[in-house]
Amino acid sequence: FLRGLAAAPIVAAAGCALGQGSSTPKETGMRPLPLPPLAESVVDASGVRQFALVAAPGNSSMLAGKTTATWGYNGSQLGPTIRARRGEQVAFTIQNALPEPTSVHWHGMHVPAEFDGGPHQTIEAGATWKPTWTVKQPAATLWYHPHPHGSTEKHVYRGLAGMFIVDDDESDALGLPNSYGVDDFPVIVADRRFTSDGELDDTDPTDVGLLGDTIVTNGIAGAYLSVSTELVRLRLLNGSSGRLYNFGFADDRDFDVIASDGGLLTEPFAAKRIQLSPGERIEIVVAVQSGETTMLRSYPIDRFGGVEQSDAAAYGLTDSFDILELRSAARLVGSLPLPATLATIDAPNSAAAVVNREFVLQWFMINGVRMDMNRIDFTPTVDTTEVWTVHNKDNWPHNFHVHDTQFQILDIDGSPPPPALAGWKDTVYTPPGQRIRLALRFSEYTDPTFPYMYHCHLLLHEDKGMMGQFLVLAPGQKAEPMTMDMPMD
Ligand code: C2O
Ligand code: CU
C-alpha cells in the first residue's frame, strides 16, 4: 500500500449494487481511495505555522499487485494536504532528498516572488529551502508541485504533487461539507502509462505531452470511495501533464459546482459535466442516496476542445475513463443544504485597466519567444489592473496559467464566461483559434530581483519554453533581475 497515505475511512456499503452504471476496472478488484494525510504543523512562539516537507524517491502500489518507483513528499508519492487559514503566516522547511534539483511551487497562491518556488528557486539535491509568507487570499483549493526549469513534467509525472487548502471564516460559516476525509475529499486525477513490469513509462510524449492510458486517482488505479453523508464535497485537481478531463457521473446525475481555482463561486450551479485542463481545480458537491454506487467518469471533451476532429484522438480528447466509484453507506448522516450564495467576488475593474497585453500561444512559444530565465518579459505596476488577451494560434490544446494572482475571465471570443469560468481562476483552457480576455490585479510583493511566471500548464509545453516572466514593481521602481545559468539547451 502507499506509504504515507492512509486509506479513507471505510464505511460498510450494505446492499450496494456493485458495478451498476459503471465499467469494470482493468485491475483485479478496486481499492479504497488513498486519502493524503493532513500535513502536520506546529505553531511557533511567534504564531508562525511551521510545516516540513521532504521530497524523496519511494515505491508505490499504483496498480494492484505491482510496485512502481515513484517520487513523493513525506511519502512515496503525492504529498500531504497542507491546510492553513487566511491571515496566518506559514513557513516550510523543504528538504530535497531526490537525486537531482527540484523546486516547490505554490500553484494559485499569492506568495512573495522569492518564495514562489518557480525555476529561480531551485533546491539542489541534498539541500533545504525555507519559504515563508502570510496567506492573504480567500478559502480555496490550491496545490503544490515542482517547477524546475525544463523538467517539471518529469517531476510531476514521478508523483510530486499535493493539495494546499486555504480556509477562512466566511467559508467556514457556510455549512459546506468540510470535514476532511469524512464529507470533504481531495481528488487528484492524473494519467499514467506503465511498462509491463509496472514502472512509469515516460517515453514517447505526444504533442500535448505524456498521455497515459491508465487513470490514477490520489495515486492508484481503480479507486473507490466509501461515503457516509448525504452531501459529498470533492475537490478535483487535474494533476495530469497534458490530458483534459470532462468529469461527470455515469448515471448523469446533477452535481453542484461551488468553487473554481481561486475559491468559492458567487453561487452554486448545477451541472452534469465539468471540464478541467491541466493544473485547474473545481470543487463539486454531489448528493448520494443510501446504499447506492455511482461512478465518477471522464467523458470525451465537448467539441474535442476546439481541436480538429481528426487530431482529437491523438491528444486524448476522445477518451473516457472511470475516475472514482462512490459507494454510499446503508445509512447516511444528514448534511446541511447548500447555501444559495457562497461568496462575494471583488472583481478587478477592467474599465480602469492601465495596460493591455497580448499573448500569442504558438509553436511552443509565447509571442514568438521561448522562456529565458534572464529575460523579463514585462513589469506590471503594483496595485493596477491589466487586461490580457490570450490567443491560441495553434490547432492543438494549450492553457494559460499566471503566478502570483487570481484573474477574472472577461470574455471568450467576445462571449461572457460560462458559470464554471466566472469565479477566480489562475489557469484557463485556451481552445485553438480563440481569444480569451483576462482581468488581473497585482496587489503587492514588489521584489525587483525575482520574477513570477506565466505559462502553458501542459507540462511538456512549459518545459519546452512556453513560459515567460514578469516582475511586479512599485511605480518608478527599476527591475534588477538576477542573472541565471540556463540549464536548458
Ligand atoms: Cu502549476 Cu507555474 O505552475
Ligand atoms: Cu501548451
UniProtKB/TrEMBL annotation:
Positions of the Plastocyanin-like domain: 59-170, 230-290, 360-473
Swiss-Prot/TrEMBL keywords: Metal-binding, Oxidoreductase, Signal
Similarity field: Belongs to the multicopper oxidase family.
Transmembrane segments: none
Extent of the signal sequence: 1-19
The keyword tRNA processing is assigned to this record: no
This protein's record includes keyword Lipid biosynthesis: no
PROSITE patterns on file: MULTICOPPER_OXIDASE2 (PS00080), PROKAR_LIPOPROTEIN (PS51257), TAT (PS51318)
Name under which the protein is recorded: Multicopper oxidase CueO
Cross-referenced Gene3D superfamilies: Cupredoxins - blue copper proteins
Pfam families: Cu-oxidase, Cu-oxidase_2, Cu-oxidase_3
Enzyme class name: oxidoreductase
Organism: Antrihabitans stalagmiti
Complex formation: Monomer.
Catalysed reaction, written as an equation: 4 Cu(+) + O2 + 4 H(+) = 4 Cu(2+) + 2 H2O
EC code: 1.16.3.4
Gene Ontology molecular function: copper ion binding; oxidoreductase activity
